[in-house]
């Protein structure tokens, strides 16, 4: 995918941030400020002026990526246009750098990565609740646990794809996401739409063993 270069309509701060997101998504967080500066058409000193440090730039990128993904997933879920949240994003080229950035954050590990995942989970609780209220998703016995499961499942599957089947060009994040979409979208949508088990025996046996999870006030117990 050809790099169109920096967008002249963006503010300098936004142009730097967007260039960093794309570069980090392609190559990880070891990339130096000089490379990002060249991508953005600015000097490394100007990056320090706007963000204070490389860590400051990373924090700004985290916040931006989380916000963009949250908005896209809210729209997709509430309108009922897709059930597999992360794969819905990966299906669109313009979101590939955002998903790629998230995956690089997971690979890097550390406190920032943990915070990133927790933000994903917290956001998932909100927009899944909105989808349940809109009638496009079923309620759950444990909404918090379901949000965490879906988030970790989506991120984990993409991480395995990137790790086990790396492309010839390691910067081809779009290729990784497209291949994963082509291989996994149908079974994912089918599973989320129709389910897997034909009866409730396994769930009932598990609930006999552990009991129902505690419910918040007003929570639906009929799932």
Automatic annotation (TrEMBL):
Pfam families recorded: TetR_C_25, TetR_N
DNA-binding region: 32-51
Domain of life: Bacteria
Keyword Ribonucleoprotein in record: no
Keywords: DNA-binding
Domain HTH tetR-type: 10-69
Entry keyword Repressor: no
Protein name, UniProt field: TetR family transcriptional regulator
Protein species of origin: Cellulomonas phragmiteti
């Amino acid at each position: 995918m050809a790099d169109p270069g920096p967008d002249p309509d963006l503010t300098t701060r936004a142009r730097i941030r967007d260039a960093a997101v794309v570069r980090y998504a392609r190559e990880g967080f070891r990339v130096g400020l000089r490379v990002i500066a060249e991508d953005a058409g600015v000097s490394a000193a100007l990056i320090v002026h706007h963000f204070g440090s490389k860590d400051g730039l990373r924090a700004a990128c985290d916040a931006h990526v989380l916000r963009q993904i949250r908005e896209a997933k809210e729209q997709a879920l509430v309108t009922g246009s897709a059930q597999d949240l992360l794969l819905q994003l990966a299906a669109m080229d313009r979101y590939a750098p955002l998903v790629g950035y998230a995956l690089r954050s997971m690979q890097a590990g550390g406190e920032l990565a943990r915070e990133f995942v927790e933000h994903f989970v917290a956001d998932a609780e909100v927009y899944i609740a909105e989808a349940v209220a809109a009638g496009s998703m079923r309620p759950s016995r444990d909404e918090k646990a379901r949000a965490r499961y879906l988030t970790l499942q989506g991120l984990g599957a993409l991480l395995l794809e990137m790790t086990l089947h790396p492309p010839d060009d390691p910067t081809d994040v779009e290729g990784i996401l497209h291949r994963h979409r082509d291989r996994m979208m149908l079974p994912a949508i089918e599973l989320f739409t129709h389910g897997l088990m034909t009866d409730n025996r396994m769930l009932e046996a598990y609930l006999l063993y552990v009991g129902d999870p505690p419910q918040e006030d007003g929570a639906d117990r009929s799932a």
